[in-house]
Amino acid sequence: MFALTARPLQSVDLSPLIPDQLAGKSIAKIKAIELHCGNRSIAVEQLFKVSGNDSENISFLRSSNQLNFIGSEMSYGHIEIRGAVGDFLGKRMKGGRIHVHGNAGNWVGNGMAEGKIEITGDAGDFIGAARPGDQHGMSNGIICVSGNAGDRTGDRMRRGIIIIHGNAGDYCGSRLLAGTIIVLGIAGKLTGYGMKRGTIILGRRPKSIAVTFNTCGQLKMEFLRLLFRQLTHMGRQFKAFNELGPEVERLAGDFACGGKGEILVLQ
After folding, report:
1. What is the dihedral of CA 264, 195, 168, 208, to 10 degrees?
2. Is the CB of residue 78 less than 8 Å from the CB of residue 104?
3. Beta sheet of 12-13, edge-to-edge order
4. Are 183 and 202 in contact (CB under 8 A)?
5. At residue 246, what are phi and psi to the nearest 5 degrees?
6. Contacting residues for 198 by C-beta, under 8 A, at least 6 apart
7. What per-residue confidence (pLDDT) applies to 26?
8. What is the pLDDT of residue 87?
9. Is 186 left (phi over 0), alpha (psi -120 to 50) or beta?
């Protein structure tokens, strides 16, 4: 367990504090691990009170939005965070589970390949999205946000599922390559802009849709019944899917990019 003793004034890279790197280390060695903080390095014990001996189940208490890269490249285990977190939560995550009891910054799940991230509060921009220079965003796994999300959720996402229980910002699912994004609240402007394939499921009709999307009318998509049933088995936070049915308005697009994607507006 890592209990923050003082809020850092500069951003701190916590990527070394994952089960993969802590396994087999003594408390003394963990306390001595060097962390990048701004343009300098500091030892773990200068920021945290360290306790416990279970490297597969890590807790961060009194967390701060200055703490970045938590869970980066982890492949197994469980990280629980009490408080806010900074950017790049679960970057290039390969497995395991991260649970945040608070808000998260930008680039949640950037490059994520497997695993599950749960955020009980809000999250910033570019959830599961590709950074400039990346071929694609997240390639598998599940990201669930109980609150609202920022802009460009799932930008260039390759595979996986992103669930937003609240509202999403502008350009949700922009340049989507594949995968599924679910927004139960209201999505912002130009949802699905430039999407090539994949599915965006919306609880309400978005504020604006690009003219390069065509409506296919009211349909009953039976695969949604199976998807929602599977999600309800994943935990209490997915109980809302019990009330959703397969009736949707289907919008096909983006025809400027081939038109093989779809936006499904729940009825």
Report:
1. -70
2. no
3. 40-43, 34-37, 12-13, 67-68
4. yes
5. -90, 0
6. 157, 173, 176, 177, 178, 179, 180, 181, 261, 262
7. 94
8. 98
9. beta
Adjacent-strand bridge partners of 42: 35
CB atoms within 10 A of CB 5: 11
Q: Write out the DSSP string of the chain.
A: -EEESS--SS-EE-TT-SHHHHTT--HHHHHT-EEEETTEEEEGGGTEEE--S-TTEEEEEEE-TTEE-TTTT--SSEEEEEE---S-TTTT--SSEEEEES---S-TTTT--S-EEEESS---S-TTPPPTT-S-S--S-EEEESS---SSTTTT--SSEEEESS---TTTTTT--SSEEEESS---TTTTTT--S-EEEESS--S---TT-EEEEEEE-HHHHHHHHHHHTT-GGGGGGGG--SEEEEEEE-GGGTS-EEEEEE-
Tokens of 220: 């009953």
- The pair of structure tokens assigned to 121 is 């509060």
Kindly write down the DSSP assignment for every residue of 166-209, as one continuous string: S---TTTTTT--SSEEEESS---TTTTTT--S-EEEESS--S--
- Residue 237 has what pLDDT? 79
Amino acid identity of residue 80, one-letter, is E
Rounded to 10 degrees, what is the CA torsion of 164, 97, 109, 190? -10
Residues of the chain with pLDDT under 50: none
Can you tell me the distance from the alpha carbon of 20 to that of 214, in angstroms, rounded to the nearest whole number?
A: 47
Contact 2, 14 (CB under 8 A): no
Q: What is the pLDDT of residue 240?
A: 85
